Amino acid sequence: MCIMKRESGRMKLHRREERTDYLHKVLQRVVLKGRRLFSMKYECVCGYVYDESEGDPDNGIAPGTKWENVPDDYVCPVCGLGKDAFSEA
Ligand SMILES: [Zn+2]
Does the pTM exceed 0.70? Predict the structure, then answer.
């Protein structure tokens, strides 16, 4: 009787761990999908890509800065063209 109890207890624990693992995987997938949905990329005519999730720290643009919040005087770090030269990638 005692052993049975301990046995089922362990089974429950195991199952809970599996579920947590599954939820973790689902959550990871949602986060990845969300990142793709909410982080836009803009490509310059020269091929340089501005990724909103990465920003452009070298030019004072913090990671996560939306393209519309990038200053209008921002220029491509590669070719020096302005925001007009970028289009959605
Ligand atoms: Zn460029």
Answer: no
